[in-house]
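Q: what does this look like with 5'-O-[(L-methionyl)-sulphamoyl]adenosine bound?
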Amino acid sequence: MKKFYLTTAIDYANGSPHIGHAYEKVLADTIIRTRRLEGEECYFLTGLDEHGQKVAETAQRQSITPQALCGRVAENFKALCARLTVDYDDYVRTTDERHKAVVRKVLQKLYDGGEIYRAEYTGLYSTRAERFVQQRDKIDGRWPEDIGEPVELKETNYFFRLSHYQGWLVDFLNKNPDFVVPAFRQKQVLEFLKEPINDLCISRPKSRLSWGIELPFDSDYVTYVWFDALINYISAVGYGEERFGDYWPVDFHVIGKDILVPAHAIYWPIMLHALGISLPRHLLAHGWWLARGGEKISKSLGNAAQPLDYVDLYGADAFRFFLLREMVTGQDGNFSHDLFVARYNADLANDLGNLVSRLVNMVGRYCLGKIPAPASEESLDQEIKESARRLIPSVRMEYENFAFHAGLEQIFSFVGQLNRYVETRAPWQLAKRKDDPVAVDNLNTTLFFAAEGVRIVAELLRPIMPEIGPEILYRLGVTPVDTWKNLPQETSLAGNEVLPGEILFPKIEWEEHGEMPSVPI
Ligand code: MSP
């Protein structure tokens, strides 16, 4: 049966992981976890983009072979995934033999079909972007940072007939308005297609660059890195083999907004169409993390690795929570120490962490460690019950639409409600009135419904906080459900033994001041 198949971009092997890579992987992993909890069979692919000039140059600077550099970088990126509890099914490297074999097969097929031709071309070449550029790539009359100053180059190369398919692509996009998510990005693609597109130069002469996959029909050339890289999405799941149908068409390619046009929204659909392969179901283009003051966080700015320190300082789950709570999927987001601390302290340390430890302590102290059975319900209890009941489908819906920030907002607003419920009832007062049957009933009902609420919160947090969610359930004596389809609105938590544990989210001591923080990015 076809699985829900999701990919991330494959990262360039010429640098260290930074918050952008971390975010994309956490977003993809969270989507996969929600789908698994919805009962779907899933497949999650990520990997490393190892060829091209930049990798060759970096290796040269470090006086090692490109292959040795890639080996090192692959370990770094895999370690990042482990640190972030990103649980991929497969990690593809473009130097894998399985990948290279498919690239050669694709090239030969397109060449035999007359889709690739040889020609001499004179144009502006950007070493930084590793492609021929056009005047239209200028922004406000200047070459953008990712292109740099291009040089004029005259070269014989191989070209893929991209322009031939422009009309087809426009038609396809018009017929499939939800191909690119969010919708405003699809408009940008169509905007780009208003001007004629050039054929794509898919080769690099070995005299200039040897670090790549040799063209099967001309050993003097290697394959252009983007043409090679995009093919990972099919090479990793057995293009040409019977099992390919278990994965393809891919459900979502999760990518950053910078690589939507032209690579994923123009080259890739046309490559697939020319090969007679069905198109991806969707491209999900996320925004960028920006540093304080709107500065771009990228390798070239040299400040990129630092946000990842927060993973080690405050835990993977807190970091994942921050990324998904602060960023509206598809839009840009800001990372700063103040923002992180404010979110962490308010939502995690004060609201959720305190609620859990208070609850477990109260059950321990007033009920001998066992969650009591509810007694009579008053309107206050019914309100909580009703909010919990509404929360489940509502959060699932937000998650389905990748609105993780909105799902989390609802969860934490419910956590606030639970805290107010406990405050209002004040079980510590009720516990003093042991001879008053109303007080005893109220105490039991309150602790029961608070525990029920926490159970639902913990379940709904699982995709975003894969360690803390189950940990909270464990403290309530609950086994996490296999699928949310079996998530009961009410359980018989009564009688469960609670387990006290360490503070989930120790408060970060921090006074906000206008100066740069001590752990700046
Ligand atoms: N190798 C190409 C992708 C090939 S996919 C067939 C590439 N690599 S990358 O390492 O530069 O970027 C990997 C992903 O990280 C991209 O989707 C990119 O958008 C994302 N990010 C890089 N910096 C980012 C931020 N500051 N914020 C969010 N994501 C950004 O492009």
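The pocket of 5'-O-[(L-methionyl)-sulphamoyl]adenosine is lined by residues 9-12, 20-21, 23-24, 49, 229-230, 232, 255-256, 258-259, 288-289, 297-298 (CB under 6 Å). Confidence is low (pLDDT under 50) at residues 298-305, 513-521.
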